[in-house]
């Protein structure tokens, strides 16, 4: 498994982001929320932090770096379960500055919840 976050994995299309927020489903592992939608391409991931909770761009960018790093380290869980045809948006919903351990733990929990939910859908 390649532990990189390459350009082709990044969610950049405005259409795709709009589609995620209009048609997507959501899973939460507080303070993180995962909004996802099935797509026809490979796995695409974006991260977001609310400007309402963090006024300084420095703080928002730090949290986004932590979210991307946690995704990068834990994406093998998704690839091992062949869940690569989705577009994700990972959102941080809290007012306090997190540390990496919290973000990493909650990202793992979020991915496992997603896998369990996806297994339930494919069994029907």
TrEMBL record:
The keyword Nuclease applies. It catalyses: Endonucleolytic cleavage of RNA, removing 5'-extranucleotides from tRNA precursor. Its EC number is 3.1.26.5. InterPro entries: Ribosomal_Su5_D2-typ_SF, Ribsml_uS5_D2-typ_fold_subgr, RNase_P, RNase_P_CS. GO terms for cellular component: ribonuclease P complex. One of its GO terms (molecular function) is 3'-tRNA processing endoribonuclease activity. One of its GO terms (biological process) is tRNA 5'-leader removal. Keywords: Endonuclease, Hydrolase, Nuclease, RNA-binding, tRNA processing. The keyword RNA-binding applies. RNaseP catalyzes the removal of the 5'-leader sequence from pre-tRNA to produce the mature 5'-terminus. It can also cleave other RNA substrates such as 4.5S RNA. The protein component plays an auxiliary but essential role in vivo by binding to the 5'-leader sequence and broadening the substrate specificity of the ribozyme. Belongs to the RnpA family. Consists of a catalytic RNA component (M1 or rnpB) and a protein subunit. This is Ribonuclease P protein component. It comes from Aurantibacter aestuarii.
């Amino acid at each position: 498994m390649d532990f990189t976050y390459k350009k082709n994995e990044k969610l950049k299309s405005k259409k795709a982001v709009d589609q995620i927020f209009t048609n997507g489903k959501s899973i939460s592992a507080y303070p993180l929320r995962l909004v996802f939608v099935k797509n026809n391409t490979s796995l695409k991931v974006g991260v977001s932090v609310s400007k309402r909770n963090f006024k300084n761009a420095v703080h928002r960018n730090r949290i986004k770096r932590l979210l991307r790093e946690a995704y990068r380290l834990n994406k093998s869980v998704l690839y091992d379960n062949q869940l690569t045809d989705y577009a994700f948006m990972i959102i941080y919903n809290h007012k306090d500055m997190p540390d990496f351990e919290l973000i990493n733990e909650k990202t793992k929990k979020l991915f496992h919840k997603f896998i369990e939910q996806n297994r339930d859908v494919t069994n029907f």
